[in-house]
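hi! just following up on the protien thing from before. the input was this:
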Amino acid sequence: MRVAPTANWVGAGLRSFPPDALAAYRRAVDEPSRGLELARLLRRLEGRGWQVDGASLSRVPAPYPRDHERAGLLRHRGLVMRRSDLLADALFVPELPAHLVEAYRSLKPLHRWLVNLQAGTFVPPL
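and the predicted 3d structure came back as:
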């Protein structure tokens, strides 16, 4: 969660993957089961108003083909889903904790996917 004069948002993820995690992330995105699961998860979140954020490259990194079906995900050097509209009306109201709980509940599948990535395991998100 960020509250500042210039920007307010709620989100989850890693703004920049450490080198080992970046390599693991790219391998996971390349795998059909894990990569497709992440792509579906991000599409669902985008459909609910979340935005993908994070550092990304202008080209698909080697050794992956430029026309990879998840080329956009392979270009990421970090991955964050965030929303700024959740705080626009709720920042100074008593319902803020409830709004945040719901926001983070929505992001739990992404959090689980990233934790599994770092743990070297794969448990499908809920």
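Confidence is low (pLDDT under 50) at residues 122-126.
Residues 48 and 106 are 9 Å apart (CA to CA).
cheers
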